[in-house]
Structures
1.
Amino acid sequence: MGFSASDETLLNRYVTNTDSNIYCVHGLPPEVVAVLFAYYSRSPATFRENLVKVVKEKDVDVRPEGTGTGLAGASEKARQFHEKWVVAYGHGSVAEHAVASIAIEDVSILATKAVEDNRLASYTEKSTRYQVYDRNRYYRPKNVTASRLGRLYEETGNHLMDAYSTLYPQVLEFVKGRNPKAAGVEERAYAAQCHAKACDTVRYLLPAATLTNLGMTANARSLEHAISKLLSSPLEEMRDIGLKMKAEVQKVIPTLVKYADASPYLMETDKALARSAAENVKAKAGGDRPVVLVDYDKRAEEKIAAALLYKHSQAPYETVLNEVEGMGEAKRRETIAAALEKIGRFDAPLRELEHAYYTFDVLVDYGAFRDIQRHRMCTQTNQALSTGYGYSTPPEIGEAGFKPEYEDCMARARDAHAQIAAEFPHEAQYIIPLAFRKRVLFTWNLRELNHFIKLRSTPHGHQSYRRIAQLAYDEIARVQPFLAKFIRVDKTP
Ligand SMILES: Cc1cc2nc3c(=O)[nH]c(=O)nc-3n(C[C@H](O)[C@H](O)[C@H](O)COP(=O)(O)OP(=O)(O)OC[C@H]3O[C@@H](n4cnc5c(N)ncnc54)[C@H](O)[C@@H]3O)c2cc1C
């Protein structure tokens, strides 16, 4: 359909072209975008045609120049549509076209992990490697600070932050002394390298309460879920973040997160399962292997080969799997090798690798958990942060002679945690430094493991998560050496 000159003027405000079949949409309220995409489902018209129609019907001349989108009428129509189709009938995919980017600032590291426990979203947070954290900036839970334990909380928090701030310049000097600048290396690059190493070393002292910043981009459907989880948390900070997120997101996506609320299902089930665990799980914190492969797909090779061939056949999967089982190891491996051996440095392996799964019980310091949690193409089950599994000590702390101060910090934090946890079991997590270890159960598919191990074993990564990536590789190599051969791993210490 041709557009009139006035339609073209209107469209040029909101789409990147008016004459190609591919175009981007910009400047429209997110819920209007969602409703216009929803029209693809029932209307033969294009997005642009429906946009002109909706604006003409609802918004003619409502937009004074330079005053936002001004699409009040279209937004109201979108609201009615979403109330009916998304909220009442559950046509959920529509909500995924309404996207918000949210700045979440001055929240604890513990809170960022709660927010990021939602995999269908994009996050970027303040680095513990490139930035030095401010000694006074850590979260103080009101119920703890108002209690008789408030003083202990503050003293422990201050002590950890002081140790972090005092040790940073000293560790930096140590790092520089041990690695003098090589000829030809630029001063700036050398300084950045030493700074990163010193930050990587002292980050173990930061309490989980340390305030940080996080950027999040997600669609309304994910946001509704994330907000509901936050509002269901036993921690006030998470509930507060959930409330603020809901209020701010509603300013740009008014309808689709309106009904996000605390979930009785989540809250009650959580309590019931905690009771059940207390009653039925007698074992305490134990085991010290950082990476244990607890379960894996014993038929991974057969399943991957079958999926690769299935895609290029017309036969049912079970029949292809039977044929693969009959083809013998050499031919099966030839098929897998053909799918993987040409892979380039930036290529992701074929999706068929996702048919093989591996479950790992990972015991890792909270600092490295922070990093590993960010890998979203997997299933993660987290235990609460505690002191039961002890803490990690980066080698540089011992080598530089700071072990006594470091161990004193950990002992004080452990003691404070024990006292606070007796009254405030959830809030006590805040005072635990990133050095303490926690357990996480990860079920990864082989494709994500290829990505995780390649990315997280590289020498410029943090030694703590590098070790997890390298050990995960070793576990796969132990049980399935042929498949491990295709994983790019850096085993340098
Ligand atoms: C050296 C280094 C420094 C880092 N520094 C920081 C930092 O300072 N701050 C910080 O916040 N993070 C930092 N990260 C984390 C990094 O940005 C990633 O978030 C993290 O490594 C997770 O990996 P991934 O994004 O590749 O995705 P995964 O979640 O592991 O997903 C696997 C793959 O699926 C695809 N994918 C998954 N989700 C999406 C999506 N929503 N959109 C598009 N594609 C998707 C991508 O191809 C991705 O590679 C750093 C990572 C490294 C290695």
2.
Amino acid sequence: MLSLWKVSKTSGVFEHTKNSLLEFFSVCKSFGGVKAVDGCTFSVGNNTITSLIGPNGAGKTTIFNIISGLTKPDYGKIKLLDSEITGLPAYKIAQAGISRTFQLTKVFRNMTIRDNLLIAKKASDGEMKSALARVHLHKPLDMAAGELSYGQQRLLEIARAVLREHKLLALDEPTAGVNPQIRQELKAILRGLKEKGNTVLLIEHDMEFVMNISDEVIVLNEGRVLKRGKPQDIVKDKEVLEAYLGK
Ligand SMILES: Nc1ncnc2c1ncn2[C@@H]1O[C@H](COP(=O)(O)OP(=O)(O)OP(=O)(O)O)[C@@H](O)[C@H]1O
Ligand SMILES: [Mg+2]
């Protein structure tokens, strides 16, 4: 098993980053005839904001589901620091330190903010307030989550992910359906999380947002990594533009 990693490092196909937190190597996942993830290799640097972008159906959420243990890969390996987490059940992966949010909100609207947070972890009011402060959500714990705006509910989900002990925060389209003001706020929130030592893996469609916030961008297309690089290089890449806009 170890040799796979060695081969990958010397072959040049897999750019091993010394400082990587998560490594995803040659991962494949098909649903019937659909190759959702088709041999993906990438790494996420420790204490970075790394964005996973690509057209609809590129395989982004499937990668998140594989990383978080909701979907088992057909092939490949995933490592979090020195531990291999490939195929582990979701709760083990959560315990290992991957904390995620979902593309569609999973907030319980008829429950209080406190109870929504307690789903993640048994925590004190102080810990919960501190998690809310990290996402700039200054609301009472007793408030019903349904009284929050949609954007604030998305922030609550991030607070829930932050509250859990984690090494990696994986956020699936946190800005989707969120108003421009909270969208701007989210940039500051993510930067603040990074400053506190967090590593963020982000799925995002808003290019302006991605280019503004990311240390590294990974472009997926049809289940494969099309490009990987700094935002300023990705934004002017011909192949990337073609993948998005067509030739
Ligand atoms: N559980 C599933 N069963 C069957 N097909 C699936 C399943 N999950 C994903 N797919 C298919 O795999 C491909 C990748 O889907 P995925 O949701 O990962 O894309 P995505 O990049 O997150 O897209 P979007 O930007 O629209 O959220 C799509 O063709 C999708 O229809
Ligand atoms: Mg998706």
